[in-house]
Amino acid sequence: MIRVEGLTKVFRRPRTFSGPFGALRTLVTRQYEERTAVDDVSFAIDEGEVVGYLGPNGAGKSTTIKILTGILTPTAGTVRVNGMVPWRDRSANARRVGVVFGQRSQLWWDLPLIESLRLVGSLYDVPAARFDASLRKLRDLLGLDEFLDTPVRQLSLGQRMRGDLAAAVLYEPPLLYLDEPTVGLDVLAKEAVREFIVETNRTGRTTVILTTHDLADVEALCKRIILIDHGKVLFDGAIDALVDQPRRLVVLLESAPEEVRGVSRDDEGRHVFDIHGDLPALIAAISAEHTIRDLSIEEPDLESVIKGIYAR
Ligand SMILES: Nc1ncnc2c1ncn2[C@@H]1O[C@H](COP(=O)(O)OP(=O)(O)O)[C@@H](O)[C@H]1O
Ligand SMILES: [Mg+2]
């Protein structure tokens, strides 16, 4: 459904000078600064997948999504979405994808939500019967009724997000891009957004690409993640494989030796052992040689695994 190969985006912007006559210098020198936001990224996503596209601020997530939706043109690389080149077949592509940017609403601020949705329906040529059926389903799923007649500018962030999600799937696109859809939402609103994504994927077999800072989103929704940093892919694969690592025994020893049984002391003065077989035997072996001041067992969790990948 999505094929991305060697995708690269370099932003060029005029180099700016400060100080007296800075603006003039900026104008006459015409020097440019280049920033590679997406750097030789390749991946393929199949129909029905929910993929988490993750990375720290400035990693290149939004830029990738903007290229996939056809808003931006890449510097290099090839992209096929539903067989189309998004930035070339822009309007045809737009009908087959839904997009939500959490940071910015796509709705019309001054219109009541229902009018915004009707406008989306007519822009995308949704037949009246299909529009009604779709709206009925979404009112239910997203609990839109209490604010359908409220102008978008008066909606709370959580309500606005639910409105944006409704607008994005009203024409039943097979593919949905969600860029930080839970940013700034409270726990309940996040839960509503997650339920909506699960349901949309399950009933419509909608393919979802999701960027988020909230790993609870990822754990609730994604089987697969693509991790990027500085525009490059660091990891692409199943979360299960990532988290399928041994539990670890963390010990703090009285004498804090440099090394114990092949394990070096970490920054916090602890020794961290992978637990493979017999835990009591491991503890006994350590305490035969050292006095244990404190010990704990760490389960591998997504957050610590991802931190580990970025640390490398
Ligand atoms: N329109 C633009 N012009 C210049 N630089 C940009 C532009 N958009 C994004 N960037 C830069 O590209 C990098 C990646 O940005 P972005 O894709 O928004 O990251 P993310 O969504 O992962 O936080 C950042 O360094 C950002 O400053
Ligand atoms: Mg972003």
TrEMBL record:
It comes from the Bacteria. It is a peripheral membrane protein. Residues 2-255 form the ABC transporter domain. Coiled coil: none annotated. Its main location: membrane. GO terms for molecular function: ATP binding. Keywords: Antibiotic resistance, ATP-binding, Nucleotide-binding, Transport. Pfam families: ABC_tran (PF00005). It is found in: Cell membrane. This is ATP-binding cassette domain-containing protein. It comes from Nonomuraea corallina.
